Amino acid sequence: xxxxxxxTVLLLVGSLVACGQPEPAVxxxxxxxxxVGDDAGHADHPDHASHETNFLDNPALSPTRLMVRVVxxxxxxxxxxxxxxxxxxxxxxxxxxxxxxxDGEGVFLCPIRPRSYVHSIVVDPTxxxxxxxxxxxxxxxxxxxxxxxxxxxxxxxxxxxxxDIDGNPVPFHPLQAWFMDRWETEVExxxxxxxxxxxxxxxxxxxxxxxxxxxxxxxxxxxxxxxQRAGGFLDVGETLEGLELQVAPGQVVLGEVHGSEIGxxxxxxVIAGEPGRRADYRSTGHERVFHYxxxxxxxxxxxxxxxxxPLVPEGRAWNISxxxxxxxxxxxxxxxxxxFLKVEAKAGVLLEGAVVDxxxxxxxxxxxxxxxxxxxxxxxxxxxxxxxxxxxPDP
Length: 395
Known about the structure:
Immunoglobulin-like, 3 domains, about 50% strand
């Protein structure tokens, strides 16, 4: 029997309070679940069945083990109390991770199943250190004892205030942060947040644990949608202050998509969002960091042609488009406070062809462009075929 497990770590980010920063939010670091054997590997570990010693509880006694030492990159000082995950595989279907926390000397001892393929080591973020990881990609032979040193860098911090549309602070409200660009979070299946937390009693927040790189912060939840997010690029150990997020009440918008003569359209892609959202970058006073409008919503229609857009901001008009392989693209608008929309899509034309070289051999990975005023493009695939779907029958 297998099950999904998820690790949650509470980070009480109090390191900046002494420097006059607002009382921090409690930030949860969510690690995506991974399938592991029952009892985190106890039941299916052959060593467990044949020995009285439980190596998971007594890793130092395991003849096959891995020692992970976490140190600060700046000075090599050991970092205690950091959560570590060793990702492993054995065979085609047996996979999982072994979780632990570094001791007072910054060490995590991990027993390894003989002949397991150790894929990688992941170190969680803390209030002071950024997340990181190292690739191992080695088969761990029976009796092997190995050491790995993982260097961690200072984490970055984001400080700001959450307001409602009337300019009032919003206390004890959920927060989410991703270690990625805004557009990576605005997809059909949005990734889970890397950090979550809440504002304090004054609507202020401090989120720690960011690595160097792209980030996005939002505050969806409790029936509200973030109409002003923040994001951009963070450097190592950087602290960004003065960010202002804004939330508004949200409402569910339901809809139906019907095709010409065939009734409900299944698996049509529906994209809804604020007008001009791609060019809407509002200054925050920080270089490489901006305020963004609400995230677009991407969903697919069901077998009955129905779809649901969760938490569209109340009182705002949104653009909406519908795309389907056998029908022409449809563009329209969700009016302010509209809660239902019916779309009638027109049948489209399939244009198919092939790209070949002077010898008649097909060319793959060639960009084919259709100059029809809409800038359609398609990439050829084996054997050099391209397809443009959903075209208008008019020239």
